[in-house]
Amino acid sequence: MGDIALPLRRPIHRQLYAQVLAAIIAGGLIGHFAPDTGVALKPLGDAFIKLVKLVVAPLVFLTIVTGIAHMRDMASVGRIAGKAFTYFLAVSTLALVVGLVVANVVRPGDGLNIDPAALDTGGIAAYVDKAKDSGIVPFLMGIIPDSVFSPFVDGNLLQVLFLAISLGSALALAGARTAPLLAVLDASAQGMFRLTALFMAAAPIGAFGAFAFTIGKFGLGSISNLVGLVATFYATSLLFVIVVLGLIARAAGFSILTLVRYLKGELLLVLGTSSSESALPGLMAKMERAGCPKGVVGLVVPTGYSFNLDGTNIYMTLAALFIAQATNIDLSIGDQLLLLGVAMLSSKGAAGVTGAGFITLAATLSIVPGVPVAGMALILGIDRFMSECRALTNFMGNAVACVIVSRWEGGIDEARFSAVFRDGQFDETLAAMPLEQDAD
Length: 440
What we know:
single chain, 74% helix, 23 helices, disordered C terminus, globular, mainly alpha, disordered N terminus, Proton glutamate symport protein
C-alpha cells in the first residue's frame, strides 16, 4: 500500500469530536440553569438516536455479508468467530469478577439499612416483566427471525447477525456465480456508509438535546444520596479500561490511551447520547481504516455489541452486591459465586434487549436467592447516570476486542496500524475517507 500521506489537520471547530464536546457542555448548562427547557429538548436526542437506529441494522447486515462473502474460506469465518467468542467469554467474565471484588472491598451499600418491604417497586415492574423473557432458551429462540424483513423492522441486532452470517456464508460457498449480487451488496454498503456520514453531521444536535434532557430531568442533586455507588462504578470502569484492557492492549502492541484518542469523537458521542449503538458505524469504519481486516471488523464488532458487554457486567455484580449490602443481606462466598454464574448466563440471554443493563440485573436477581429484586428500586433513579459509563466501557471493550482478534488472525495492515497506534498521526480527516481513496 505504501506510505500513508497525512492530510492537513482541519480547524478544531470543524472536527466532529469538538462539536460534540461543545454541544454536551452547552446542553449541560441549559439543563442545569433552565431545567424545563432542557427537558423540552429531549426530542432532539430522540430524533438523532432514531436516525442512527435507521442505519445500524442495514449497515451491520451489509458489512457482515460482504465481509464473509469475500473471504470465500468458511474455515476462516469459523476460526474468527471462535477466537472472538473465546475472547468475549474470558474478558466479560473478568469484568464480572472485577465488579464483585470492588463491591466487597468498597462496600458502597453499607449503612443504608433499607427494609426491602418498604420499597416502592412500581417503577421496576416493567423491567422485571422484561427480565422474565430473558434467559438462554428464549434468547436462542429469539435469534431466528420470523421473516427476512422482521430483523430490520424490529431493529433486532441478534437476528440481523444471524441473517447476515447465513447469507454471507451462502454467498461464499456459492463462489463466482454470486459475483453480480456481491457487487450490488458492496455498492450498497458504500452507500450506507455515506448515508451514515450524513446522519453523523447531526451528532452535536443529538448530543445537545440528550444531555440537556438528562441534566434538566434528573439534576445533579438527585444522585447525592447514592453518589458513592455512582463514583465506585465510574472508578471501577475506569480501572478496568486503563488496567485490564490496557494490559491486553499492550500485549497486542498498542496503547489503550492512543486508542482512546483515536476514538475520541465516538466516545463523546456515546457520552452525549448514553448509547454505544450511536457510535457503532463510526467504530466499524475506524477499526477497518486502522488496519483491521474487513471480515474481522464485520464479525467481531457487531457480535461484541451483543456478547462483549464489559461495562454492563461490572454494573451487574456491583449493583447486585450494593443492593444486598443496603438491605443488610450477608451473601456467603457460595452465594456470590452463584450470582457470578447466573450473571454470566443472563448477560448473554438479555443481549440486544433495550435497557439490557437494568433488565439483565432483574433477571439475575430473580434467580439468585437472598437478594431482593425489590432492591432495584434503590438504583432506578440513578441508573440513567450510570448508563453513560456502561456504554463507554462496552464501547472500549469492543474496540480492543476487534484489534486483538485481528492480531490473532495475523491480518492487520501494519502501515495503517503503526500510523494509528504507534505514531499517533492518523488524522480524523483521513479516517473519514472511504477505503478506496485510502488505497490510491
